[in-house]
Amino acid sequence: MPSASPTLFRWSDIELDKVTEMVSRKEIRGAHESLVQTYFKKGALVPVHEHSGPQWIYVLQGVLLVTTGGEAITAREGDVVHVPGGTAHQLEALDDSFVLDIRRT
Question: What confidence tens digit (pLDDT) does each residue in 23-79 have?
Fold first, then answer.
């Protein structure tokens, strides 16, 4: 069985993508997944959307309000939220926040 070599990525080498005035991110894409660092300014709102695969949201700093199916979860530093694939959800930054998320595509 052939083995693939590991690949090293450095966040410092990845360009910051300014999505809006309130949201910026850096993304590493694999064949079937992505790893994303996202920076939210307090008050940032990511409107209702969904991903085909599951998403794991790890709050490294700040506070996020994650709403899915009418249920709101307040996620603080150190918390991890799992959003199943195909589930509509919305994010609101209740404070300046830094998040790492993993998405299966």
Answer: 999 999 998 999 999 999 999 999 999 999 999 999 999 999 999 988 999 999 999
| Of 46, 41, 47, 12, nearest in space to 28 by CA | 12
Q: Which domain holds residue 90?
A: 42-105
**Domain total for the chain?**
1
Contacts 24+ apart (CB under 8 A), 26-30: none
**Is the residue at 58 inside a domain?**
yes
Single-letter amino acid code for the residue at 85: G
Question: What DSSP state is assigned to residue 5?
Answer: P
Output the domain CATH number for residue 77: 2.60.120.10
| Residues 91/53, Cβ–Cβ less than 8 Å | no
Place of tokens 């599951």: 54
With contact defined as beta carbons under 8 Å apart, do 105 and 87 qualify? no
Nearest to 58 by CA among 99, 11, 28: 99
| CA nearest to 26, candidates 88, 99, 76 | 99
